[in-house]
Amino acid sequence: MKGTLVGAMLYEGWAKSAEEAAERLARGEVAFIQNHDLRAVGPMSGTISPSMPVFVVKNATHGNTAYTNFSEGIGRVLRFGAYGPEVIERLKWIATVIAPAIKAAVRELRDGVDLKAIQSQALLMGDEVHSRNAAATALFHMAIGGALAGGGFDRARAREALDFIAATSQFFLNLSMVASKAIMDAAHGVEASSIVTAIARNGVTTAIRVSGLGSRWFEAPSDTPLGLYFPGFSQADANADLGDSAICETAGYGGLSLAASPALVQLVGGSVAEAIAYSREMVHVTWARNPVMSLPNLEFAGAPAGIDVRKVVDTGIRPVLTTGIAHRQAGIGQIGAGIVRAPMACFTLALDALAERLGVAA
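The structure assignment produced for this chain is given below.
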């Protein structure tokens, strides 16, 4: 998180060196606000600064809007705390090439891009639409490709943008997150509701928000993910879980839909049977199945959705999250991928608060 904030300072031109940026941050000269308070989400360290382009996503049914930043691709990137010249250069390239290209494509599409339809289709194609987005990225590429090629946007820059998306299988992650955010924000603020509408992690703690409990966060120390590591790394190198991307699980994707993604199982170190078992287990802590999120390996049953703090506490089953694993040291980047569970204390604290609010015994 600190490395990312230094990078954002350099990107904005608020500091001339990493040392100056760190000193200004330490002195409290920069104001921070949580992404979720601005209806936004970002993966891993997830910082969005004022000059960064964002996707704007509208919930067509309920009218609310959500935002997210753009995928930087792989390698040394800001979301993993890197802030060297190549990181800043890529961010500026995203702002001058990728963002304008996608904006031009979307303007050519009368109804925009239906992200939920892409997510639903991707579940049938081997994604769980959190840690694996290969199919969803391909579908998004198809959705904008013709519009971008057929519009008046500069052909060379259009080719750059399409090539970058095609080479970045996780490009859709940010879009899956923001679609999930738009869905779950519409479910927030329901009186007495015990449904979890956000899960976020900052590399130190994990926190949840609950529909009937306003803007309060209920937090507890984050666990370290278990999974497979890239050559040369081990769990001793891993940072505790971080990022806003668990918003996907609150909407029923990721760990709740893991049965849809046998290909991902090889990366996170499990088996197909275990993936199916995770999705079946999550039925016991959720409110319902979503019929538009079909899981082929569960006979096309809908994915479990709507994590309920009451059911989590009653059953003792912690929600499972699929996640990337970051190195403990800023800038090294992703060192693996795996599975982590949200800490139980988040849910017990939230249930106590809900009981107090309703005047009943927890």
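Interim note for the steering committee: The chain has twelve helices and twelve strands. The chain has a mean pLDDT of 93.
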